[in-house]
Amino acid sequence: NKWDNNWDKRDPFCLVKPISGSFRVSEKEENNYNEKLERAKSVATRHIILVRHGQYNMNGETDLLRTLTPLGRDQAYHAGVRLKDLALPYTRIIQSTMTRAQETANIISQQLPNIPVDSCEFIREGSPIKPDPPVHHWRPEPKQFFRDGARIEAAFRKYFHRADPTQTKDSYEIMVCHANVIRYFVCRALQFPPEAWLRFSLHNCSLTWIAIRPSGRVTVYTVGDIGHVPPNKMTTT
Questions:
Q1: pLDDT tens-digit map of 108-137
Q2: Which of 93, 112, 154, 172 is the most exposed place for a label (fewest CB within 10 A)?
Q3: Are residue 217 and residue 101 in the same domain, yes or no?
Q4: Is 79 exposed, middle or buried (0-12, 13-18, 19+ CB in 10 A)?
Q5: pTM (two decimals)
Q6: 74, 65, 207, 92: CA torsion to nearest 10
Q7: Phi and psi dihedrals of 161, rounded to 5?
Q8: Are 156 and 94 a contacting pair, CB within 8 Å?
Q9: Range of the domain at 201
Q10: Same structural domain for residues 181 and 77?
Q11: Protein transport: present as a keyword of the record (predicted)?
Q12: What average pLDDT does the chain have?
């Protein structure tokens, strides 16, 4: 399909009420309308850097017991150092409410101590949509896709959109969450078939960088960048 320029429903022509009334439009009415369009235009780029959590104890029976392994904490440290070295003007860190994501975000925050941290249940791990092609070793029940898919899609609509017209400078947000969520976000942001989300893999504490331009165009700088983690400490579990 062709690219939908108004995918986030924030195109100025969508936000400003069109001129109505008589067939003939006065010059004053046209000027007022054009001024409103200009004020409704986004002028800044929003950068979202998605970080997958570190390796964690997969044998934990509950989320509270699925804590980071020593290796996972080390991976998170390297991710924090990388984000610090980038020296970008971060505005906030958004963390999933799951234990492994919160622990990862906490370690990253130690490298970025002045950046506020927000928590969001919408970006918890889940099953966003039935993958195509399917995999035989992972088959969630249909109700799980129904439940998780709505939540993860709501997260996409909440966080992925062009900047508000009042935002005058480019922004950089860090989102610490999960592989399924990140992969789904990449597909949705690029307007690829969302069912393709399971066709690629992400390493623990890898970085995925997505930029949303004022025009609504989306640029993906990296997907699963893991160059900051030593090769002997790279995992995908």
A1: 999 999 999 999 999 999 999 999 999 888
A2: 154
A3: yes
A4: buried
A5: 0.93
A6: -100
A7: -170, 165
A8: no
A9: 44-233
A10: yes
A11: no
A12: 95
At residue 30 the predicted structure's pLDDT band, cuts being 50, 70 and 90, is: confident
The model's confidence at residue 85, banded by pLDDT at 50, 70 and 90, is very high
Edge-to-edge strands of the sheet including 171-177? Answer: 117-120, 90-96, 171-177, 46-52, 207-212, 218-225
Cα–Cα distance between 227 and 66 in angstroms, integer?
Answer: 26
Residue 128, CA distances (Å) to 55, 164, 200, 203 in order = 21, 27, 15, 19
